[in-house]
Amino acid sequence: MVTALAIVVFAVAYLLIATERVPKTAAALGGAGIVLAAGVVGSDEAFYSHDTGVDWDVIFLLLGMMIIVGILRRTGVFEFTAIWAVKRAKGSPLRVMVLLVLLTATASAFLDNVTTVLLIAPVTLLVCDRLGINPVPFLIAEVFASNIGGAATLIGDPPNIIIGSRGGLTFNDFLVHLTPIVVVEVAVFALVLRWLFRGSFDADPKRIAEVMTLDEREAIRDKRLLVKCGVVLALVFAGFIGHSVFHLDPSVVALLGAGILVLVSGSRPKDYLAAVEWETLLFFAGLFIMIGALVHTGVIGHLARLAADATGGHALLAVMLILVVSAVLSGVIDNIPYVATMSPLVAGLVADLPDPGQGQALWWALALGADFGGNLTAVGASANVVMLGIAAREGTPITFWEFTRKGAVVTLITVALAAPYLWLRYFVLA
Length: 430
What we know:
The chain has 430 residues and is mainly α. It has 23 helices and no strands. The chain starts with a helix and ends with a helix. The protein is 76% helix and 0% strand. The longest helix is centred in the C-terminal third of the chain and has 29 residues, at 400-428.
């Protein structure tokens, strides 16, 4: 009974989010309230469990970075970067998109995807405002690039950290095995931008000419604050990259950075708290609780076991099935609980395979499927939800289906490229 209720509540809430009949935050919190009130999960499972509860690391990572970005915005550095990007692209909206996509994908390999999106979105909005073009295609393209680029390294995306821990894989393992295909994926994605977002690159020549005459250095409004922000951001990025050495989770690093920057900048609470996307944080909390109910009742585990059992011990079939199933399921539910549930099953499959190389390919299939599948729908990855929240706040809302139509195409392309890579590298050339 409780299993059926968890499925129904999630399905109804997901339908409401997809059709936008009610605000997505209301749908997520309403669904979370129902599963809590009905006893599908208790407060311990919802608020304190690492497996079935709210992922507070994600929530507080978002909170800390939103505060940092809010203070950084006051320096004028986003305007500086926007003007610089337009001038380097010679005013071409397509070249601007390609440049921002490449920057986003590269940054996402070394920073959390959400952090990258929070930093790149303000620049994008200013660029599009300067050129007088619709920012929505640019924002969507950057989220796709973030999810693709995040697959390249151990620290690029939270699922990779889980996979590295469960599979005994190092930073260098990810660098050697996943970075090559991610570089290819990003290059192909950059090439299809013109087709994928056709009709989105018409800018007013007068607006372009105006931007080309601007001096980006004049956009900096507070140099002293910029220096303070730069120092704090450098420390935060160092903390992100070296979190395994410092034994500090990214959420702790972000909160420490936010606290230090608030102190050294002398910011008032009403200023830095105004930059926090509270609706986005509440949406995440509700979504985590509903997904946690599916994990708690065994729904996610059952689906994962079905996928694992269907392989019948055939290594290549297992790799391809894990890749495809992970892409689909990670596009519907958050990829963090999915990977956490799937990892023990993959570990079991790896142990049963006689060839260690083919066994390791199962981990790479899980990582690529979960990361690339995040592009499938508007709620497939944390970065997607954050970007939609930013767009809505800035008065340029992105609908669920507007995102998902493009996301389905991008997921198909990336998975289609990943499949032959895994086959060739681990079954043909090995």
